[in-house]
Amino acid sequence: MEASSWDAVRKQARRLEAQLDDQMIAYRKLVSMKSDGSEDNIESDIERSLKQLQQVNSQMQTWVSSGGSEVLSHTLTRHMEILQDLTQEFYRLRSSLRAKQQHTSLLDLRDFDRAKFDVEEPSDSADQVLLREQAAIGRSTGQMDNVISQAQATLGSLMTQRSTFGGITTKISNVSSQLPTINHVLSSIRRKKSMDTIILSLVASVCTFLIFIYWLSK
Amino acid sequence: MGDHEGHGVDFEKKADQKLSGWGLFGNKYEEAADLLDRAGSFFKLAKNWSRAAAVYKKIADCHLQGDNKHDAASAYVEAANCYKKFSLQDAAQALNSAVNLFQEISRLNMAARYSKDIGEIYLQEQDLENAAVYLNRAADLFDSEGQSSQANSMTQKIAEIYAQLEKYQKATELFEEIARKSINNNLLKYGVRGTLLNAGICQLCRGDVVAINNSLERYQDIDPTFSGTREYKLLADLAASTDEGDVGKFTDAVKEFDSMTRLDPWKTTLLLKAKNELKKKEEDEDDLT
């Protein structure tokens, strides 16, 4: 009876996992394509399935905690792993889709047509084009200056690091020369400890033996 | 696989026998912990994570009985690594126990590292409130250990979380604090304009135009080069469009910036909130007229 009930619960878990796999494949496709509004349905379906799988796992958990075998415990762990992987994957895909949707929504074109406004603007003169180009070059130069100063700061930091590492190298070589000695001391301590234990146990047994003899001779 | 499991069970039984024995010579807790450690390794090889995690928690208890807090904390970390495979909540609890023990023995660096891990687990679980609590703890610990760059990156994450939780005032303050700290550091000062942009976006979400303009002036005091950056131009344009209630201008400013530097999801989310608020205002005004 018990085995059949466990089998039923496990079968349900496997069915839900297979169903979730299919749903996730569909959702992954939807994320990679342009969204058309159907993602809400799939999302709610996946969330529902995940909740159901969570409940099924809880049922299995109660089975195991009420004296299940090792095999059952192992099986449950595997199902919980699968649930966690599916949940994490769903969260990741959902946040990716949200980001994509929000980006599109944020950069949405205005409702009215800009083309008609552009017609009214006169075409730029050669001077204006050159001025714009000069400004762009100026900005680029500024950016390059920024990058160069950042690189110089990095170089300074790296040089400081190099000197630090130089100091560390000598310290490590000093330590490594002392390591055999430390190792020797540790093994001596270990030997001493085991000797102490042996001596203590011998003394205790001898005392016990003597007490026993004394008790017999009385 | 089954072989590993069997070995694990054997070692666990031996450890249980040790613990239930007298332990006249030598420390029974230490010896039991050694046996359990071997059992844990075998359970990990057998990929029985729940059993391995339970064993490592037992090891932690053994070490605590022997008043060896460092090893107990390390055992909790091992348990958490096993829990991570199937239950993030349990992993967070185990790491929390480890953090408390590391703090007790003044290993603040380790405590900070694992607090950060707990925060990241909660972020993964999308529990922003708890994530903020643990990342805050990590930031404080890193700061007390003098690891300013680590503390800064934690504070940055916390500020982002506060903004997601719509605690814009707190987020703005944190971003500005990071900017002030970073401006004096040769390597961090180049990231200041990005941090100030984040602070400005949080101000935008509050929708207080006067505060935004005051902030822009204040940001120039923090970083005198800020007024020449594209980040400043974006904030100034967004402030102007918010003041005028012009959604189109707002979108154009964002689009221009995005064409050069793609906006990350966090900025996108907040700017979209600000844009929607602006739209709502525009619609309300249209209804009134």
From TrEMBL, chain A:
The chain crosses the membrane at residues 197-216. The keyword Transport applies. Involved in transport from the ER to the Golgi apparatus as well as in intra-Golgi transport. It belongs to a super-family of proteins called t-SNAREs or soluble NSF (N-ethylmaleimide-sensitive factor) attachment protein receptor. One of its GO terms (molecular function) is SNAP receptor activity. Component of several multiprotein Golgi SNARE complexes. GO terms for biological process: endoplasmic reticulum to Golgi vesicle-mediated transport; inter-Golgi cisterna vesicle-mediated transport; protein transport; vesicle fusion. It is found in: Golgi apparatus membrane. InterPro entries: Golgi_SNAP_su1. Belongs to the GOSR1 family. Keywords: ER-Golgi transport, Golgi apparatus, Membrane, Protein transport, Receptor, Transmembrane, Transmembrane helix, Transport. It comes from the Eukaryota. One of its GO terms (cellular component) is cis-Golgi network. It holds the Pfam family V-SNARE_C. This is Golgi SNAP receptor complex member 1. Its main location: Golgi. The keyword Protein biosynthesis does not apply. It is a single-pass type IV membrane protein.
Automatic annotation (TrEMBL), chain B:
Keywords: ER-Golgi transport, Membrane, Protein transport, Transport. One of its GO terms (molecular function) is syntaxin binding. GO terms for biological process: intracellular protein transport; SNARE complex disassembly. It is a peripheral membrane protein. Gene3D superfamilies: Tetratricopeptide repeat domain (1.25.40.10). CDD domains: SNAP (cd15832). One of its GO terms (cellular component) is SNARE complex. It is found in: Membrane. Required for vesicular transport between the endoplasmic reticulum and the Golgi apparatus. Belongs to the SNAP family. This is Alpha-soluble NSF attachment protein.
